[in-house]
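Entry 14. Structure prediction run on the chain below.
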Amino acid sequence: MRFRLALLLVPVAALALAESALPREPSSLPDDVPDFVAAAAERSVGDFAYALAEARFPAGVVAFESDSRPPVATSYRSSGDDAVVPLEVALGLFRSRHPTYEVEEQDGVLVVRERELDLGQGPLARGAERIRIQVLPLRAAFNQAMRIVDPSIQVRDGFVGSIIGRPAEPSPLGLFRTQVTLDMSNATLPTVLNEIVKQARGTVWILSQHGRSPEDQYYTLAFRTWGGTLSQFEEKLR
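Output returned:
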C-alpha cells in the first residue's frame, strides 16, 4: 500500500513543479506609476480611480456608489519629475486599505472590483452577439456601449458633465476628440469599456451600483479623464 501511494504522489508533485515553472503571460501594464497613485490608493476607491486616469493608466472600476464618489479638491501631482513607485507597491497599498476589492489585469486594463459585485450576474453579464462602433467620439462610444445592457437607450451623448479638477487646469480636449472604432463578438459591457479605454489612454470607466435592496439596485456609468473631467451618464442600468 505504501509503495502504491508513493507512485501516486510522485506524478502529482512533478505536475505541481511543472506548473510553477511555466512562464506567466507578460503584463502589458507599465511597471511603475507616479507616486501620487500610491498615495491615492490609501485614501479611497474613487481617489484611486481618478489618480489612475491622471497617470494615463487604462483602468476600470466596479464599485458601490458610496465608494466611487469623487474626492474633494484632490490634486494629483508627483513629488518630483521622476517620482515613481512600482505598480505592485501601489496595488499592495490599495489591497491592504480596501480588502473587499479585487484588482486584476484584464486584457491590458487594470480592473478594480468590489467582490460582492459579480460581473457574471445581473445587468453587467448581459452580452451582445456583436457590437460595432465605427469612428465615434469618446462620449458617444460609451453611450453606445450601454445599449448592450439596455437597447432602449437612445443613441446620443446623454450625460451630465462636471469638472472636479482645479479651475485653472485645462480640459483634455484632445482626448474627447478621440475616435473609437471596434468590432467585437460575444461582448459584455465591461469588455467593451475595456476596449474603449485602451483606445483612449488617460480614461478610466466607472460602474457604480446604487440601491440597497435587490429590487432597487441599478448601475450608472461614468468616465474620468486626465485633467480633471468627470462625465456621468444619467441612464440607470438594471
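Helices lie at 2-21, 35-41, 45-54, 87-97, 138-146, 173-176, 189-199.
Filed with the rest of this week's runs.
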